[in-house]
Design a protein that fits this description.
By secondary structure, the protein is of the alpha+beta class. The chain has 17 helices and 18 strands. The chain has three domains: about 230 residues, no CATH class; about 70 residues, no CATH class; about 140 residues, no CATH class.
Length: about 450
């Protein structure tokens, strides 16, 4: 999905010369501020004749070529982390900004993509340390410990001389342990990497202009889900009580890594046939981690896709007028954002149909005032600052609206029942899933959209 890392190759001599003399590029004198990209750019820096930087993007100039190392997700977060959601719209905007700042809007086809990494951050349905521990294989390639990060594994095929394939590799790790200040402790990162043009081109990516096309991100999402479907997770925490003795013993046997090593030594289809049997046993036992995690990944894909079809996305908040569909009810999931019911005694208790319009008007006014109160409450939502402007994370907005609806309904429960009222946003375009999670909003936009969309009506 959204891009985490790009290695870009340029051979146009005129373009290289103009970039080398571009005053916004600074000489690389020390590595300070490049910790987010130093590992990836190290080889290029060593081989370069000249190295310059711009906002954490590294430009390695050689006599007849240029390599650019660029991390769009980090760039989006001022090169501090890549632990939050990074929407397709935001990714496209970052790449547009990169091209615009360097006056490359009409020369993107000269920037050839040689290396790409893309992935998703999601919340693990089980303890993140267990999830990483349980990762066993991608296809027939074992997940190996990734030195340098806690609870991190990589999977890739090996050539005959024992070198890791550059065609495709998978990485899965505990993002929350890497960036505890920016992510939930159980945040899970699943990403793909390719350093071969044959694979990159098969995804519809040849040069950086292709990364301005929303359809390409759909292809990346499909690729990511397809590769996850090929992953084997040996969930040793699975309950065995629902299995008959013979199947129970079989599942216990299959949870042993030695079993799978032996399957690899047998006929070509043995390993895949055993995977099918293993998944079937997990389903019978009552919980299949693959199914659960796949749904979570798909859900995140849908969230991040929001606004991807905009032809020229400029700011996430500009997508506010697009079709957004909310989950059918507007209540919170779980107790984390449970309603803080406030006193609504100033609303007079009216009980006749002729007073319905008056009550609805008062409910709507009360709802707006509650939203204003909740969105300013640091316990509910904390605005983040991006490029000098404060904006409210879309996921937080969704939760605050759910809190507000719950508060309003609790305070006016008798009137809801008496007049058969319901908040019509439950069935109409609003801030909700998948739009809320995928967007950032300015406060005035939140209030205006709430004011124009929230109304109470009699259920037909």
């Amino acid at each position: 999905m959204p891009i985490d890392f790009l290695k870009i190759f340029v051979k146009d001599k005129d373009l290289i010369s103009r970039l080398q003399n571009n005053p916004i590029l600074e000489w690389l004198q020390i590595r300070e501020g490049l910790s987010h990209i130093e590992k990836e750019a190290q080889e290029g820096i060593i081989k370069a004749t000249t190295t310059k930087v711009y906002k954490g993007i590294v430009f390695c100039f050689k006599e007849d070529s240029l390599i650019i190392y660029f991390k769009p997700h980090y760039y989006y977060n001022n090169n501090k982390h890549n632990a939050n959601d990074f929407t397709i719209n935001a990714c496209i905007n970052v790449i547009r900004e990169f091209l615009r700042d360097l006056s490359l809007e009409n020369e993107g086809e000269k920037l050839i993509v040689q290396n790409i990494e893309f992935g998703l951050n999601v919340l693990s349905p089980i303890n993140i340390k267990d999830l990483i521990t349980f990762l066993a294989y991608h296809k027939k390639n074992e997940f190996r410990t990734d030195v340098g990060l806690l609870y991190s594994k990589k999977s890739y095929s090996l050539s005959k001389n024992g070198k890791a394939s550059k065609y495709l590799s998978l990485k899965a790790y505990a993002k929350g342990l890497q960036f505890p200040e920016y992510a939930d402790p159980d945040s899970f990162r699943f990403e793909l990497k390719s350093q071969e043009s044959r694979k990159i081109n098969s995804l519809g990516i040849f040069n950086i202009n292709d990364l301005l096309k929303p359809d390409v991100y759909t292809t990346l999402a499909e690729e990511l889900i397809q590769r996850f479907d090929e992953v084997l997770i040996l969930d040793s925490s699975v309950e065995l009580d629902k299995l008959e003795p013979k199947k129970r013993l079989k599942l216990v046997e299959m949870l042993n890594t030695h079993f799978w090593y032996k399957q690899l030594q047998k006929s070509r289809n043995t390993f895949n046939d055993s995977k099918k049997t293993y998944f079937s046993l997990l389903n019978t036992a009552g919980y299949n981690i693959h199914n659960d995690l796949r749904k979570i990944l798909l859900s995140k894909v849908e969230e991040l896709k929001y606004c991807a079809d905009a032809e020229t996305p400029i700011k996430d908040k500009n997508c506010a007028d697009a079709d957004i569909y909310i989950i059918r009810n507007c209540t919170t999931n779980g107790s984390e954002y449970s309603a803080q019911v406030k006193d609504a005694a100033y609303i007079k208790e009216l009980s006749t149909d002729k007073d319905k319009d008056s009550i609805i008007a008062q409910i709507e006014d009360y709802a707006l005032q509650q939203l204003i109160s909740n969105i300013n409450n640091p316990d509910h939502i904390k605005p983040e600052k991006l490029k000098g402007e404060y904006f409210y994370n879309g996921g937080d907005v969704e939760k605050v609206i759910a809190v507000t609806f719950s508060e309003v309904e609790q305070n006016f429960k008798e009137h809801y029942s008496l007049f058969n009222l319901h908040p019509s946003c439950s069935y109409k375009n609003y801030f909700g899933f998948p739009g809320a999670q995928a967007m950032g909003w300015m406060k005035d936009d939140v209030l205006e959209r709430f004011r124009s969309n929230f109304y109470i009506s009699a259920e037909q």
